[in-house]
C-alpha cells in the first residue's frame, strides 16, 4: 500500500500540478519545475552530462525518463511489423517514422 508520507507527497504533487505551483526554477533557462529531481535532470542537459547509458546498445541519455522509455525498446513485444523491411517495432509511431524516411 501507499504510506501516509507517499499519500501526502502525491496529494502535494497533484495540488502543485493543478495550481501551476512549480517551486524549482532552472537558473540557466528559467524553466519552472515541479520536482527537485526534474531540476537536476534539466541542469544535466545544460552541462552536457549524460549519466544514463544503455548496456544493450550504444545509446546514452541525460534524462532518466527517456532512458527508461528506451529500455522498453529492448524488452517489449514488437507487434508492429514492417512489410518492406525485416524490422519490427514496439510502437506504431516508430514504424510510421521509418516509412516517412523512405
Structure description:
Keywords: Metal-binding, Repeat, Zinc, Zinc-finger. This is C2H2-type domain-containing protein. Residues 24-51, 52-79 form the C2H2-type domain. It comes from Meganyctiphanes norvegica (Northern krill). The chain has helices spanning 4-19, 36-47, 64-75, 92-101, and strands at residues 24-25, 32-33, 52-53, 60-61, 80-81, 88-89. The protein has 102 residues and is mainly alpha-helical. It folds into two domains: 4-47, Classic Zinc Finger (Double Stranded RNA Binding Domain); 52-101, Double Stranded RNA Binding Domain, CATH 3.30.160. The longest helix is centred in the N-terminal third of the chain and has 16 residues, at 4-19. The radius of gyration is 19 Å and the shape is elongated. The mean pLDDT is 83.
Lay out the secondary structure.
Blueprint: H1 4-19, E1 24-25, E2 32-33, H2 36-47, E3 52-53, E4 60-61, H3 64-75, E5 80-81, E6 88-89, H4 92-101
Antiparallel strand pairs: 1-2, 3-4, 5-6
InterPro entries: Znf_C2H2-type (IPR050758), Znf_C2H2_sf (IPR036236), Znf_C2H2_type (IPR013087)
Pfam families: zf-C2H2
Keywords: Metal-binding, Repeat, Zinc, Zinc-finger
Shape: elongated
Rg (C-alpha, Å): 19 Å
Main beta-sheet annotation = 2 strands, antiparallel
Q: Give the mean pLDDT.
A: 83
Q: Based on the structure given, which CATH architecture of the largest domain is correct?
A: 2-Layer Sandwich
User: How would you classify the helix and strand content by structural class?
Assistant: mainly alpha
Fold-level CATH name of the largest domain: Double Stranded RNA Binding Domain
| Weakly predicted, low-confidence segments | none
Roughly how many Å apart are the termini?
A: 49 Å
List the helices and strands in order: HEEHEEHEEH
Number of domains: 2
- How many DSSP E strands? 6
GO molecular function, one term: zinc ion binding
Protein name: C2H2-type domain-containing protein
Domain C2H2-type: 24-51, 52-79
Keywords: Metal-binding, Repeat, Zinc, Zinc-finger
Amino acid at each position: 500500500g501507499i504510506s501516509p508520507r507517499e499519500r501526502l507527497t502525491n496529494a502535494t504533487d497533484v495540488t502543485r500540478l493543478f495550481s501551476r505551483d512549480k517551486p524549482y526554477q532552472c537558473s540557466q533557462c528559467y524553466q519552472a519545475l515541479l520536482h527537485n529531481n526534474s531540476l537536476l535532470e534539466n541542469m544535466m542537459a545544460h552541462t552536457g552530462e549524460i549519466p544514463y547509458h544503455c548496456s544493450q546498445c550504444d545509446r546514452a541519455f541525460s534524462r532518466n525518463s527517456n532512458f527508461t522509455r528506451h529500455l522498453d525498446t529492448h524488452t517489449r513485444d514488437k507487434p508492429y511489423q514492417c512489410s518492406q523491411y525485416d524490422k519490427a517495432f514496439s510502437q506504431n509511431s516508430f514504424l510510421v517514422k521509418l516509412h516517412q524516411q523512405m
